[in-house]
């Protein structure tokens, strides 16, 4: 098996994260930048945008998320929500993935024939960049899990880090040291998922 396929197979949702990491923050930042930079985008649009949070900024994100969710969560369920968010906060950092909406609009205007497709293609580009980043972090020995607290936290995030108005938050990739391995994963049978024709 190739190293690439092995990395894809090893990339799992790790929820028990810590800060026992041998890499420097600058090294992790470079891995993230390279993974995003070399991820393909339709029409070479390069629409994904990224904010990397370490230290107090990372912790602040999950504190803000807790504040935003408290009024939206039934009181009896909130302790479970708090415990989940504390697990994210225990990690080393978070990568915020955004979509540049101006890029999408400009392409829609320039290539009217494909206008309806550009929002979907931008989401696909974000997905590719996210998966590549997640796999690259796995290959570097880090664990991660992907969250989607947008749009609940969009306004608070934009205000806290002065995010441009044309950056739309799409996901949050939490990363850190693997404090426990991922659980077993079940797969659908190949017959249910794949068709091959010759």
For the residues shown, what is the average pLDDT? 97
Number of helices: 8
Structural class: alpha+beta
Q: Which percent bin holds the helix content?
A: 40-55%
Cα distance, first to last residue? 25 Å
Choose one word for the global shape: globular
Q: Please provide the count of β strands.
A: 5
Task: Name the helix and strand elements from N-terminus to C-terminus, one letter apiece.
Answer: HEHEHHEHHEHEH
Rg, Å, rounded: 18 Å
Low-confidence spans? none
Strand content range:
15-25%
Biggest β-sheet strands, sense, barrel? 5 strands, antiparallel
What is this entry, summarized?
The chain is of the alpha+beta class. The chain is built from eight helices and five strands. The chain has helices at residues 3-10, 25-37, 55-69, 78-89, 101-110, 118-139, 154-161, 190-193; strands at residues 17-18, 48-54, 93-100, 143-147, 167-178.
Descriptive terms for the model:
single chain; 198 residues; alpha+beta; 5-stranded antiparallel sheet
Chain-wise SSE layout:
Elements: H1 3-10, E1 17-18, H2 25-37, E2 48-54, H3 55-69, H4 78-89, E3 93-100, H5 101-110, H6 118-139, E4 143-147, H7 154-161, E5 167-178, H8 190-193
Helix pairs in contact: 2-6, 3-4
Structure description:
This protein has 198 residues and is α+β, with helices and mostly antiparallel strands. Helix content is 46%, strand content 17%. It is built from eight helices and five strands. The chain starts with a helix and ends in a 5-residue tail after the last helix.
């Amino acid at each position: 098996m190739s190293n690439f396929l092995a990395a894809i197979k090893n990339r799992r949702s790790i929820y028990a994260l810590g800060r026992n990491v041998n890499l420097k923050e600058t090294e992790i930042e470079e891995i993230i930048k390279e993974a995003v930079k070399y991820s393909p985008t339709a029409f070479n649009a390069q629409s994904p945008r990224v904010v990397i949070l370490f230290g107090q900024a990372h912790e602040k994100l999950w504190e803000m998320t807790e504040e935003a969710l408290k009024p939206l969560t039934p009181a009896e369920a909130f302790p479970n929500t708090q415990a989940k968010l504390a697990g994210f906060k225990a990690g080393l950092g978070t990568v915020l993935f955004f979509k540049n909406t101006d890029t999408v609009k400009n392409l829609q205007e320039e290539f009217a024939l494909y206008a309806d497709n550009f929002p979907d293609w931008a989401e696909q580009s974000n997905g590719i960049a996210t998966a590549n980043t997640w796999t690259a972090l796995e290959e570097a020995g880090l664990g991660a899990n992907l969250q989607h607290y947008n749009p609940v936290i969009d306004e608070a995030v934009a205000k806290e880090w002065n995010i441009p108005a044309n950056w739309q938050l799409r996901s949050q990739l939490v990363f850190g040291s693997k404090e426990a391995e991922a659980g077993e994963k079940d797969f659908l049978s190949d017959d249910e998922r794949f068709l091959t024709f010759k």
